[in-house]
Design a protein that fits this description.
mainly alpha; two-stranded antiparallel ribbon; 4 strands
């Protein structure tokens, strides 16, 4: 018997367990007494050599229980996997539904979680920290910093190439070339190499769906592209306006002429500026809705929350548009003023180029030293002159070009910083700050019920999922034990 229990003579893989049955003399004893007698038996020779896990009724119960569990796990492994999958599915459905929202406190907490997530991702989008969340990898419209930067660069290029009504004379090899072309579709006049670089199209192609666009139809300017393209070049135009503005002045230019020329030259600024602001507002609006769709997957709650946010959003867009119009009115109606020395530097360059071009046609000879400089007769220099009208036209052109170039750059920067960056991106009451914890904190109990209350159908579905989840988790525990 000991050989069988200890495994030296058995032929079965599971082995044996010894128990002590009741004898005739103790057949009527209780179970506790019977267990006590069994324990005493295995403490006497020769049964002391039997291992504790193979001796007694309790050891047999443990071995049979373990054997049953092993057999169950082996034969019902697929069942356990199905239960695990069902538990995961229930958790996903509950997560998609959000926390329970039967009270105002629960409703406010749920909306605060949405607003906090919204602001968290917005800060990453503005700082271009796209690696902080996986949502930026699959949604280009959420890469807000990149989108706005490309729109700003497009605006700057458009204003440089198409902002002026007539193209200025361009400097070339120290002289000036008359601009016979009227429409501004070529390279800028005497700008830096950086500005002469070819325009790059936006890499992020964004589309605004019709529903979002319809929400903005009363906000966007939607100006029509100007079609009255002038047919004369800038020299002919300035000369005509000069002759039309002559008064009783002697040897001077009518002081009202230059502002009139400038206002005509910037006539296209309003269209290009408002078109740019419209595009930035559309990109911002699309970003806000797409991000809200990500942080609030519940369609019903998202639609109600969006309806609550839409009014403040449109008001914030109106502020940006109003500031853009103010900047335009300053240029269109204000006086030509600048304290920037760049104006004088540019004007000096233009006049120097004109004089150099005229003197190049005079007879000259070169010195014999290393510099090989050209020498001119004083009489030839004094004889280089043009008529008073030509001189006035050239002065008007050079002053207009010098001021326009400076004003355009300052205006583009003012729109970029004052309208786009401040009013649309960073101001505390701007569109990107509308969906905020502060707004949720100010909602009344009635507004919370209207936005986040769980309807009867949703509550019933949640209760069903919770009951099913408890049953499945009980099954998981059964498999573990």
């Amino acid at each position: 018997v000991l050989d069988l229990v200890l495994g030296s003579g058995g032929r079965f893989g599971l082995g044996y367990t010894m128990i002590c049955n009741r004898s005739q003399s103790n057949f009527n004893v209780c179970l506790a007494e019977r267990n006590k007698l069994e324990k005493t038996l295995f403490q006497t020779e020769p049964w002391t050599v039997v291992p504790h896990d193979r001796a007694g009724i309790d050891a047999l119960k443990n071995r049979l229980n373990k054997l049953l569990v092993d057999l169950t796990r082996e034969n019902f492994r697929d069942v356990a996997a199905d239960i695990d999958q069902a538990v995961g599915s229930c958790h996903e459905r509950l997560q998609a539904m959000g926390p329970e929202r039967s009270s105002n406190a629960e409703q406010r907490g749920y909306l605060l979680g949405i607003a906090t997530s919204f602001q968290y991702l917005t800060s990453h989008a503005l700082d271009a920290y796209y690696g902080r969340d996986a949502v930026f990898a699959s949604h280009d419209e959420l890469r807000l910093a990149t989108v706005i930067k490309e729109l700003q660069e497009d605006f700057s290029t458009t204003m440089r190439l198409k902002g002026h009504t007539r193209e200025f004379w361009r400097s070339k090899n120290g002289g000036l070339v008359g601009a016979n072309r009227v429409v501004n579709q070529t390279e800028p006049s005497d700008d830096s190499d950086l500005e002469n670089s070819p325009r790059q199209e936006s890499r992020l192609l964004l589309t605004v769906d019709s529903e979002r666009r319809s929400e903005l139809r009363r906000t966007l300017s939607n100006l029509k592209k100007p079609m009255d393209i002038p047919r004369d070049n800038i020299d002919t135009w300035i000369r005509r306006e000069y002759n039309r503005s002559k008064g009783f002045e002697i040897g001077t230019i009518n002081p009202s002429l230059l502002p009139a020329l400038y206002h005509e030259q910037i006539r296209y600024w309003r269209y290009h500026t408002m078109e740019h602001i419209d595009r930035v507002i559309e990109a911002t609006h699309s970003f806000i809705f797409s991000l809200l769709r990500h942080v609030c997957p519940d369609v019903a709650i998202r639609d109600r929350l969006w309806a609550r946010l839409l009014g403040p959003l449109l008001l914030s867009y109106d502020k940006a548009i109003a500031h853009a119009k103010l900047l335009l009115e300053i240029e269109e109606l204000g006086n030509m003023r600048t304290l920037n020395h760049y104006f004088a530097v540019t004007l000096k360059k233009l006049r120097h180029s004109r004089m150099q071009k005229r003197l190049e046609n005079s007879p000259s000879w070169r010195t014999q030293d290393d510099k090989k400089e050209a020498l001119l007769r004083l009489s030839d220099v004094l004889n280089v002159h043009i008529s008073n009208e030509d001189q006035a036209v050239e002065d008007l052109h050079d002053i207009l070009q010098s001021y326009y170039k400076l004003a355009r750059k300052q205006f583009v920067d003012a729109v970029s910083k004052g309208v786009v960056d401040y009013y649309l991106l960073t101001v505390s009451d701007g569109p990107l700050r509308v969906c905020s914890p502060q707004l949720i904190g100010m909602l009344s109990d009635k507004e919370l019920d209207e936005i986040a209350e769980e309807n009867a159908e949703s509550a019933a579905e949640r209760a069903h999922i919770v009951r099913r989840l408890k049953s499945l988790e009980a099954g998981q525990e059964a498999f573990k034990t």
